[in-house]
Write a structure and sequence with these properties.
The complex is a heterodimer of chains A (315) and B (285). With 315 residues, chain A is mostly helical. Chain A has a single domain, classed as Orthogonal Bundle (MetI-like fold). In chain A, helix 6 packs parallel to helix 12. Chain B has two domains: 62 residues, no CATH class; 214 residues, Orthogonal Bundle (MetI-like fold), CATH 1.10.3720. In chain B, helix 6 crosses helix 9. The longest helix of chain B is centred in the N-terminal third of the chain and has 33 residues. Classes of the chains: A mainly alpha (315), B mainly alpha (285).
Chain lengths: 315, 285
């Protein structure tokens, strides 16, 4: 905080001496006019809902005199949070999403990194074809992607199931053990190309001279990739990891679509589905507490990961 | 390209790299190819013929059925998606550009603080906002209207972040100063001078926000009950949930999915270079 403050005063001081030779420059009113069109909706549709959710999560609905009494809303302290943490469905959904994230995020980012590194070498032809085909899924909404894949998982329609059966396998993509990974596959399909392009763009901005010397010393492409390129694009890899963590915790559309064809996905499969299910039951205070907990976990994990990696990499 | 190392690179690793990339390309293209094939088939052939090859070419019949269903509701959904995404992204880009420009070019107290608030906004999970927004909107009566989806969609903290970076890079101080000396007001400077210089980056911001809104599902699902207000994603989701009872709907879900992704994929391929600028700056820290 003090850092921001000192920087701000320095900026103000500098602007006084450097940028206003004619004493003009934008007036406060003008600056505000530039900022308000964004900040007004930002406050109304971002900050206010956040504060409102936090406020709601501290309320409880009670009834006077048993089942038929009138209900009233009152301050309940951490009561809703205690309920969230005692809810076994909440922990089950967190467990699923944790398992999902621990496997899916590293697999996806590893594949994305390998693709980006290969596209950055002279080994490949048809580079733009590979790049476009990987990025194409990003144009497909999550719901549509899940619908497309659910046809490929369906025992009646899927050519993939047909082909696997032809070689003697009995795949059940929608079974109790497999369905989580079927959902993970949809996310991987959707986001690998996007993450690959972020990493690839970072690779492209590395000046060639940086590894010319290593090449002349006879370093293999492999060594250059892992010892020079990967450390340089570490910030991009961290960024894609953070975005993936946020995305995983928000998971809703893909499992919700698979739920339409598989009884092995409950209405509380992910934390977000749980929050929606609770809100549909008109328990908005409990739903608010769940949303706040999800948001807090997201913040802790993404900031924690950034701190951890930046310390390690000395960035 | 013929550096000493690349010549020494063995044929084996070239082949392996190509093979791996081909496998991955098949993985990425397979569902889309399946969808194209399935969209050309009559409903009866979906289960009975091999999914990766064509049977009867019934695409036009399927399209007719799709757009004719429930008094043309699919066409309405498509129009709604376009309204939400095109208008939302246009307004969103404009307000992001104004804000990003101000943050990049004006010096004022609290500037860095405002910017860190916006950066924090990038990390907020937007699905966590949908439920409290629903409650706030139902109190004001705009739930179940176009505005309920449109208004929250115009806010993109990531867009402001991009706008600030792009402005700093694309609009030189001298040009702003000389416009000021010519007596132009700040808004005139922005719209007549800076806007032109920023155009390529504004296209990038527009595209990112367009796709974000086009793909959005949770917000419209929470906000809308009236079918005639649905975007394509929500409409097809509802249909897909009914295929167990109305199996003939399956073909329309397939054809509708294809119709909904083709225009966006074409726009993507045509505007490739804007994506790359956006993604490159997104990865700068």
């Amino acid at each position: 905080m003090t850092d921001i403050a000192t920087r701000a005063t320095r900026v103000v001081a500098a602007s006084g001496s450097r940028r206003r030779p004619n004493g003009g420059g934008p007036r406060v009113g003008t600056i505000v006019a530039f900022l308000v069109p964004f900040f007004l909706p930002f406050v109304l549709f971002y900050l206010v809902p956040i504060c409102y959710a936090i406020w709601q999560s501290f309320l409880v609905v009670r009834r006077t005199g048993g089942q038929y009494g009138t209900s009233y809303t009152t301050f309940g302290g951490f009561e809703q949070y205690v309920q969230v943490f005692q809810n076994t469905e909440f922990w089950a959904s967190i467990g699923r999403i944790a398992l999902f994230g621990i496997v899916q995020v590293p697999v996806m980012l590893f594949v994305a990194l390998i693709m980006a590194l290969l596209l950055d070498t002279p080994l490949l032809k048809l580079k733009s074809f590979f790049r476009i085909s990987a990025f194409m899924p990003y144009a497909v909404p999550g719901v549509i992607a899940a619908i497309m894949w659910s046809f490929l998982y369906s025992p009646q329609l899927s050519p993939v199931v047909d082909m696997l059966k032809a070689i003697g396998l009995q795949p059940d993509f929608l079974g109790p053990g497999a369905v989580l990974w079927s959902a993970a596959n949809v996310s991987t399909w959707l986001w690998t190309g996007y993450n690959m392009l972020i990493m690839f763009s970072a690779l492209q901005s590395i000046p060639q001279e940086l590894y010319e010397a290593a090449k002349l010393d006879g370093a293999s492409n492999w060594a250059i990739a892992w010892q020079i390129k990967v450390p340089i694009i570490a910030p991009s890899i961290i960024l894609t990891t953070v975005f993936s963590i946020i995305g995983t915790l928000q998971l809703y559309a893909e499992p919700a679509v698979l739920r339409q064809i598989s009884s092995n996905i409950s209405s509380t499969f992910t934390p977000n589905m749980l929050a929606y299910a609770v809100a549909s039951g008109n328990n908005y205070q409990q739903a608010a507490a769940i949303s706040v907990v999800i948001a807090l976990i997201t913040f802790v994990l993404s900031f924690g990961f950034m701190r951890l990696t930046s310390k390690k990499a000395g960035l | 390209m013929s550096t000493p190392t690349s010549i020494r690179e063995s044929r084996v690793s070239r082949t392996a790299a190509m093979a791996l990339m081909f496998l991955l390309a098949i993985y990425f293209l397979l569902p889309i190819y399946f969808l194209i094939v399935a969209a050309t088939k009559p409903q009866g052939d979906l289960a009975s013929t091999f999914g990766l090859w064509f049977s009867h070419f019934d695409l036009f019949t399927n399209l007719g059925t799709l757009f004719g269903r429930s008094n043309g509701i699919f066409g309405q959904w498509a129009i709604n998606s376009v309204i939400y995404a095109v208008l939302g992204a246009a307004v969103g880009t404009l307000i992001s550009a104004l804000c990003g420009y101000a943050l990049a070019k004006f010096r004022f107290r609290g500037r860095e603080f405002l910017f860190s608030v916006i950066l924090g906004g990038v990390l907020v999970p937007t699905t966590a906002l949908a439920l409290p927004l629903f409650l706030l909107f139902s109190a004001t009566g705009i739930v179940n209207t176009y505005l309920a989806v449109f208004l929250p969609s115009i806010v993109s903290p990531f867009g402001v972040y991009l706008a600030r970076i792009f402005t700093a890079a694309a609009v030189p101080e001298e040009i702003i100063e000389s416009a000021r000396l010519d007596g132009a007001g700040e808004f005139r400077t922005f719209f007549s001078v800076a806007f032109k210089l920023m155009t390529p980056s504004l296209v990038t911001i527009f595209l990112f926000q367009f796709v974000g809104i086009w793909n959005n599902f949770f917000l419209p699902m929470v906000m809308l009950q009236k079918e005639s207000l649905f975007p394509i994603t929500l409409g097809l989701y509802e249909w897909n949930g009914q295929t167990a009872r109305v199996s003939l709907l399956q073909e329309s879900v397939i054809t509708g999915s294809l119709v909904s992704i083709v225009p966006v994929i074409i726009v993507f391929i045509l505007l490739q270079r804007f994506w790359r600028t956006g993604l490159a700056s997104g990865s700068l820290k």
